[in-house]
Amino acid sequence: MYSLGSESLIKQAREIQEAELQKFYSRLMKLLQLKELGYETLDSLHRLHLILSANKYARTLPSDLQQRLLSLLSSPAEQFQVLSSALLRETPPSSGEELNNIQENISQLNTHAAGLLVSQARSRTDLNNLCAQLIHGLEGRPSDGPTRSLTFALPVLNSVLRLSPESLTEEHVTILSKKFVDWLRYASIVQGGGASSGGFFTGPRSRQPLPTAELDGSVSGDFFTVLCVGQGFTEDQWMNVYSFSMLRHWLLTYHSVSSGNSTMDADDRSEVDGSVVSMVSATSSSSRLLPPKERLREKTFQYCQRLIEQCDRKAQKKSDTELQKACMVEAVCILDCVCVEDPSMVFRTFPSIKALFGRLSSDLSYARVLLSIAQFYLNHGEMAAVDCECVWKLVFGRFPAELFNDPFLAHELLRFLRQNLDSLRLRAPEFIRFLPNFLKFLAWDSSAVVDDFVDLLPSLVTEGTAVEMLHTLLDLPCLSATLILQFRSVSLPISESSSRGLLSLDAFRNPAFRGLFLFLLRVETGSGHTIDRLSTLHDLLAEAADWPRVVRCAQVVPVLLHIYFNTVVTVAEEKLLAHLILVMLERSGLLLAIPTYSREIHRVFSCHLLRLCKLRPSLVVDQSHELLEFAGTTANVYSKEEVYTHVVWVLGEYLSVSSDSSCSVVLITSCFETLEAVLFEITSSAPPPGTVCPAPKVITTLMSALAKLASRSHDLIPRVSLFFSKLRTAARNGSVAWCADEEDLVAIVTRGEELWSLLKAPGVAQSVLTPPPHVLTPRWHRDTNLAVPLQLRVLTRLTHSK
Fold first, then answer.
1. Are 709 and 652 in contact (CB under 8 A)?
2. Helix 597-615 crosses helix 641-654 at what angle (to 10 degrees)?
3. For an engineered disulfide with 270, which of 185, 238, 303, 344 has Cβ 3.0 to 4.6 Å away?
């Protein structure tokens, strides 16, 4: 982590002795008492900071040294302000009297001193006092004079309000709203810092200040904004910039104090009565006659409109182009806040937002701006009676399809979905159709966005999307590999030889396989049927099994499958659940060959197969044909051991009249014969080449299932008893080819003898192997007809008697 030199310094700082430390304090005090604070003082302060920060526990400085550090907060040299603030943050909070002295002297406050006050505030009362001090300092600030600049106040005030919004009072809201109006709308339009239009021979008296300019180089023709440039800036221009940076948070915060004055706020706010004439007349009144909050909304609207107009200009620098994009995002978000607060502003705002969308929608480099526009359409499109379909096709369609590798857009789009789920279900329910598109973000960078999908996935599971979503989640590693191939096909030349390239990339470019990859890259659900050539696709993508991005994607699929099944049981009917069981059986053998991936998916399938059958036992009878077909395939014992074991268990457990009255003796006999044939086959021969012996759990589960079925149809008992007898005889003759471990063989034979003994008493066997529900969930302690409750009450009285 650190270089050897750095580790040595940190070790020295931690091991410094107390005597040496006191000498260092004394030497530093002498340096701080000098009139000129030079390099030696600066170096000593750096050493002190290393000593304080390298230790686990805070050190207490001598009081006189702490006083000197507090006085350095008002030093004219900013490097001493920074160092003193950093040092004081590493020490226990200063006394209340010392902090109050700094706080009360508003002229000595600066960014670092105010930041120290915020970090060392011991209660909300301290934050309230600091908030009031800063606001009244801003209110009493004269337009000119020798007083210290207060440009630091707004950033610090913003931090205070984030920590303690209740620090605001109605008086504070009025003061700051008025000041925001002045800073936003009436900042000077000439450059600061001594910029002038004079030539070489021009004297100081004849120099005239230059006006600020636009980003395209032309002279600003309107009021100052953050997009105006110059060689220097005046203090009110800096306050304009700080005000715009804080404006959105301010609009969202000052409502916390409106609850106590709801009548006044109702009077300030324009009513929406459905009459366009009344809205226009309300907005055309003189802004200076409006209450402070409404006047701030009006000036905010003008400021943001001016910003949007400025963003039409072609910037001369690339960095300014990025600044324009950031300002557009902020301007649209602020206008959204204004319209949420005052719905009458929607009709004035929407034309410019709609025009902005039309201008930017063809350029995906403005995706973050378009996403903020989508938020505006979602919140106000219904009121403005506009069609939002084109917005959703762009945001949910083109963005994930073409910008899946943009991590910032992925984060913001998924956050947009999470924060607006309720609104999207109500106003844009078609967003669920774009599920395959959203999953491209997960397939490309699974570790970064998996938390978002853990929150999103339950909302995307519906009866209409459940089956396709299950297939899509299982194919997520294939989608990850396909996105990599799509990305590489653009960057690598087509003429590159296959010997140096990737075989899967050649397949991706091959028209014969294009349909397979296009299905994975589909934008909406229902745009095609489930792939019927999955094995071909898996063969084409075989070399992608060890790509890091694909492996990481495969690791998150089991987590999402658990969430999926936990959700689907709450929304699906029995017919859909039956279909999902078939999908699980089908897909258990159609997975991309990634190490451990198949095993993890089989474990998830097994867990939720049991849960579905326990929830709806009749599913086993309804889907008995498919389940028996799966259980009757001997190859599944070796390739799908986990799933196979659980399928056999549910057949033995729930194939009975008690689970479904339509279950017949013929069905039970058919199931018995199928399982008997498989059990006989695997216990009479060695496993196929390239496979290992079946696990003892598979064999004992088959034996238990046969015993359960025989207990329900007594004609089958002799057949299963004969098998158990042959099994015991074969085990006595020595080792067998189908079981490599002697202890496992003993356990299997012991289990067979136990089941054989039970079947000698058929009535007892059925009660033991398939106990009725009242036995599985006893209520003896609650049933008043039994003697147990009476005995418990007597024992309770005896043990609690005095």
1. yes
2. 10
3. 344
- Mean pLDDT over each residue of the chain, to the nearest integer: 84
Q: Is the dihedral of CA 757, 760, 761, 764 positive or negative?
A: positive
Q: Tell me, yes or no, whether 666 lies in a domain.
A: yes
- Does residue 428 contact residue 388 with C-beta atoms inside 8 Å? yes
Q: Is residue 408 part of a domain?
A: no
Question: The domain containing residue 740 runs over which residues?
Answer: 658-801
Q: How far apart are CA 742 and CA 731, in angstroms?
A: 9
Q: Which amino acid would we find at residue 503?
A: L
Does a structural domain hold residue 540?
A: no
Secondary structure (DSSP) of 614-654: HH-THHHHHTHHHHHHHHT-THHHHHSHHHHHHHHHHHHHH
CA 441 to chain centre: 12
Q: Which residue has the tokens 């008043």?
A: 784
Count of C-beta atoms within a 10 Å radius of residue 1: 4
DSSP 8-state class, residue 394? I
Q: How many helices (H) and strands (E) does the chain have?
A: 42, 0
Looking at the DSSP bridge assignments, the partners of residue 219 are: 213
* Interatomic CA distance for residues 464 and 469, integer angstroms: 9
Look up residue 31 and give its two tokens.
């340096």
pTM of the model: 0.82
DSSP string, 193-230: TT-B---TT--TTT--BPBPB-TTSPBP-S---TT-B-
Per-residue model confidence as pLDDT tens digits over 123-132: 788 788 888 8
**Residue pointed to by tokens 């689907």:** 568
| End-to-end CA, the chain | 67
Query: What pLDDT is attached to residue 481?
Result: 95
Of 25, 117, 24, 36, the C-alpha closest to 66 is 25
551 and 463 Cβ atoms separated by less than 8 Å: no
Buried b / exposed e along 465-501 (16+ C-beta atoms within 10 A): bbbbbbbbbbbbbbbbbbbbbbeebeeeeeeeeeeee
pLDDT tens per residue, range 563-584: 999 999 999 899 999 999 999 9
The total number of structural domains in the chain stands at: 1
**Looking at residues 432-438, what average pLDDT do you find?**
94
CA 234 – CA 241 distance, rounded (Å): 11
Say whether pLDDT at 600 is over 90: yes
**Is residue 578 domain-resident?**
no
- Provide, for the chain, the percentages of residues in helix, strand and coil under a 3-state DSSP scheme, each rounded to the nearest 5: 70, 0, 30
pLDDT at 409 over 80: yes
Query: Could you report the per-residue pLDDT of 157-204, keeping only the tens digit for each?
Result: 888 888 888 888 888 889 999 999 999 999 998 988 655 544 444 455
Taking alpha carbons only, the member of 399, 561, 547 closest to residue 482 is 547
